[in-house]
């Protein structure tokens, strides 16, 4: 099943399922084919409506239910729209009813057999979670009160995963995380401290994680990056990543936090 612009919708949905699995500890309610995530935190994918599967109830009824659900959860109601969202009229309905679009994001993928194998120009440490979380907490601005929850989720995560980091003058200045589900490798939390950008540290982290993915039997890799992050898009293009599809969020007025 393909969309009008040639996107394989079943493959895209399966990739989205892997990405949510990789996020770990996904608190959700299944409601008439929609996955209502309600895990508090900065990651909007985990605290929004993911309209993945066939819908049967009227949209007016379903959206009103979601608004009440998120009000009880003390979270802003947010929808994440994808090429395979159900029903297909949902995005237009939300637009017509005052839900504003924001944060368009690209999902990129690459086959690791064809991907370039650049030299890793900086020393990269591979660190097993949950020790990785404690090492990168400052760089990723994880609040001290939130860190135990990150550590707990990493310790209980059921699939293979490994972190990478680069240190300068005793400080972690670049990092990334690899999560595997079968032969599929997901890259997450790739970040470089602002003072150290433009020196190839992010490229080194990505190269090290892709190499580790190959070593562990991965045949393809995927990641997500916002459309306005031009430096990251340029970097990933050098590794052969191309766009699989995009998604975006919708919220009412300023309910975007």
Q: How many domain regions?
A: 2
Which architecture of the largest domain does the CATH hierarchy give at level 2? 3-Layer(aba) Sandwich
Structural category is alpha+beta
Strands in their spatial order, largest beta sheet: 4-11-5-10-9-8-7-6
Q: Please bin the fraction of helical residues.
A: 25-40%
The tally of strands reads 11
Run of helices and strands: HEEEHEHEEHHEEEHEHE
Secondary structure tally, helices = 7
Q: Look up the CATH topology of the largest domain.
A: Aminopeptidase
Radius of gyration: 19 Å
Shape: globular
Largest sheet: 8 strands, mixed
The CATH superfamily of the largest domain is known as: Gcn5-related N-acetyltransferase (GNAT)
The proportion of residues in beta strands is 25-35%
Q: Oligomer, anyone?
A: single chain
Could you name the ranges where pLDDT drops below 50 across 5 or more consecutive residues? none
Mean pLDDT: 93
The CATH class of the largest domain: Alpha Beta
What separation lies between the terminal Cα atoms? 35 Å
